[in-house]
Write a structure and sequence with these properties.
single chain, alpha+beta, 7-stranded mixed beta sheet, elongated
């Protein structure tokens, strides 16, 4: 769904105007209110992405407004840690590849620093790991690699390649960017719920039911989004033919 479409009224903003009974241009014609709804929409867009990541079944979710692939290649150094820029909006690491020779990448497997106990301060810790089976320890906005690159490997072109999942791009009061949420009702009703919680309590109760259901006969948008994404990726199935007697 398009974010804002004042001419055809087919956008998400226009949907929120209707949901909240604000009428045409009720949001777009009020700068302060438009800013509020944009902030609420961004909040629920991010909530939606986190729901999709938690329900992930192998189908990679990303915002179609990005023009780059969610990955980065970092020049190898003799340091163990590699930090990620806040502009990458990383939510979750998908995979890490380490190149010790500057040409071939070896997939690294995650390790928790707790598994290392106190040996992480051991100056010989890298000797406990192999470049043919490297590991990485994810941090808040960085990773530590084991073993780290030697000076000779850095000279040969060592590098770190990371693929990741990221936050959606922020919507704005200008432009008509679309957003990839498989159920756009989550964003429009979520933002409308934020508005109604302040100004229209009766509407807020109705929207909350739409979002979260009642625990019995009404699932709610959040639950439906989780279930839909769990089944989005059709896993390969092997069908065995029945034995037939052609005599």
């Amino acid at each position: 769904m398009i974010w804002n479409d004042t001419s055809g009224r087919l956008g998400a903003v226009q949907e929120m105007e209707d949901l909240c009974g604000l009428g045409a241009a009720g949001i777009t014609g009020n700068t302060a209110l438009f800013q509020q709804f944009t902030r609420w929409a961004n909040k629920w867009n991010k909530i939606g992405f986190k729901i999709l990541l938690n329900a992930q079944d192998g189908f990679d979710v990303d915002d179609i407004n990005y023009t780059t692939y969610p990955s980065g290649t970092y020049v190898g150094t003799t340091s163990r840690d590699y930090s990620f820029a806040s502009t990458e909006k990383m939510l979750k690491i998908k995979s890490v590849g380490l190149s010790y020779d500057g040409t071939n990448y070896v997939k690294a497997t995650p390790i928790d620093s707790l598994e290392l106990s106190n040996v992480s301060k051991d100056p010989n810790i890298d000797g406990k790991f192999s470049s043919s089976n490297p590991r990485f320890d994810p941090k808040v906005n960085s990773i530590d690699i084991y073993p780290k690159f030697t000076a000779a490997e850095v000279l040969a072109g060592a590098s770190v390649y990371v693929e990741f999942f990221r936050e959606p791009k922020d919507l704005a009061t200008t432009g008509t960017d679309s957003y990839i949420i498989e159920n756009e009702n989550l964003v429009t009703k979520g933002a409308s719920y934020e508005y109604a919680s302040i100004y229209k309590p009766d509407l807020a109760a109705s929207l909350r039911l739409d979002l979260y259901g009642n625990g019995s006969n009404i699932k709610g948008i959040v639950k439906e989004l989780e279930e839909w994404h769990l089944n989005r990726y059709s896993k390969r199935k092997i069908i065995s033919p029945r034995m037939r007697n052609y005599e």
